[in-house]
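new request in #modeling-help
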Amino acid sequence: MLIIKNLSAGYGGPTIIENVSLEVREGEIVTMIGPNGAGKSTVLKSIFGLTEIEGGEILLHNENLIGLKTSAVSARGIGYVPQGRSVFPSLTVEENLFMGAYIRSDKNKIAKDMEYVYSKFPRLHERRKQKSRLLSGGEQQMVALGRSLMLHPQLLLLDEPSIGLAPKIVAEVFEKIQEIQRDGTAILMVEQNASMALQISQRAYVLELGKNKFEGPGKELLSDERIREAYLGVRKK
Ligand SMILES: Nc1ncnc2c1ncn2[C@@H]1O[C@H](COP(=O)(O)OP(=O)(O)OP(=O)(O)O)[C@@H](O)[C@H]1O
Ligand SMILES: [Mg+2]
C-alpha cells in the first residue's frame, strides 16, 4: 500500500536521508530500527509532509504523496503519532480524542469512533474527564494512539511508541498495536525496543546514517548475528 522509493529529504540544510526505500503491505506491521540520528523519524515526517523532499517517491496505493499538506495526507487515511507523547496536557482525555477528528466533516460519526477507541482502551473511558497531564506515561501514550485512531487510518505511523515506559506497560502498548493491526490498520513504526518490535513485525528495515542498511522479515532480522550484535546488545559467543 505504501511504497517509498529512493527517497532523499532534509530540513532545508544538509541531506538527512538518502535514497531510502521501503514498503508497507496491506495489514502489515513494519518496523524501522537504527541508531540515534539515523533518520528514522525523518522518514515518517517525510510521509507526513513535514520535511523538504529532495528526490524519490512516496506512493500510497500508487498515488503520489509528495507535495501534499499534512491535512491532505491525514485525509488519505494516514495517522501519525510523533515521537514523545503528544497529548494536549491541559485538555481532558475526551477532548484530546476529539482533536483527532478535527479534519472530519461527518461529525455524527465521531461519537461512534469514540466508542471504538474506548472499547480498545477501557482505561481511557474511566479517565475521560481527567486532564491529560494527570495521566501516567503509559496512559498518555494510549491517548496519543487513541487520538490517531479517530480517523480510521488505513496506515498508522508510530514514532517510538514505547519510549520511556515501564516494561509491563511496553508489553501492553505492543499488545494494543497488534490489536489495531488485527482490526485492519497497517503500521509503520520506529522503535528502540528492537527485540520486541521485531517479534511482532512482518518485516523490518535497519537504517544507518540516513541510508538503508538491512531489511527482511522481523523474525529473520531478530536472529541475524550482525543485527543482534549491533542493535539488540547480544554479544558474539
Ligand atoms: N527539524 C529539524 N531540523 C533540522 N535538522 C533536523 C530536524 N529534525 C531532525 N534533524 C536532524 O536529522 C538527523 C536525523 O534525525 P532523526 O530525528 O530523523 O533521527 P532518528 O533516527 O529518528 O533518531 P532518534 O533515534 O534519536 O530519534 C539528525 O542529525 C537531526 O539532528
Ligand atoms: Mg527519532
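bot summary: The two ends are 40 Å apart (CA to CA).
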